[in-house]
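So, could you explain the following?
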Amino acid sequence: MRSLGLVAFTIMAASALACKYAVPVFSLAGSDGETYTAKSFMARPTIIVFIHYGCPGSYDLVKSFNSLQSQLKGQANVVAFAKISPEKAVTYAKEIKATFPIIADPSGKTIAGFGAKNGGNLTFVALSEEARFPKIWDGYSKPILKEVLDSIRKHGKTLPIVSLAAVPNEKTSGCKL
C-alpha cells in the first residue's frame, strides 16, 4: 500500500469547508502499480479528480492537473479515479500522459460512493485523523481549484502558491461516468 506522506494537524480553521463525508472503503490498484485505500489519503492533502475512460475532455483535464501536481511539489497529491481495469489504467495513463496515478475502479463502486457523476468532478481529502471530504464539485475551473486549494490551506496545510494558467476559466466537466 502506498503512503502519500505524513502530516499531522489537529485544529481545523472555522472558515474551512467541513469535511463531512467519509471516503468510501476501498482497496484499488493505481496506474503506478501501487495499491490505494482510503488510508492512503489521510497522510497528505489529496486532490481527487474523476475521469471517464475514452472521453475527449480527459486530455485537457490531465494537462490542467499535471500542471497542478508538479507545482504542489509534494505538499499535496493529485490522483484520479476511473471506471476501468487496472491494466487499462496503466495504458490509459500513458496514452493521456497523466503524471499522477489513475486509480482503477472496475466496478465503479468507489466512484459512486464519492457521488461523482461526470468526468472532471473533483474533491479533496485534507484531514489527517480520518479520510473525509467536503463535497463533490461538478467540474473544474480556476475559481473552483482556487476554492479547493484555499480550503486545504484553511485546514492547516501550507501549500505553495500555484499558477492556474493551464486550468480553464469556465467550469468544465467531461463525459458521464
Summary: The first helix runs from residue 57 to 72. The helical segments are 57-72, 86-95, 109-114, 142-154. The chain has four helices and eight strands. The longest strand covers residues 46-51.
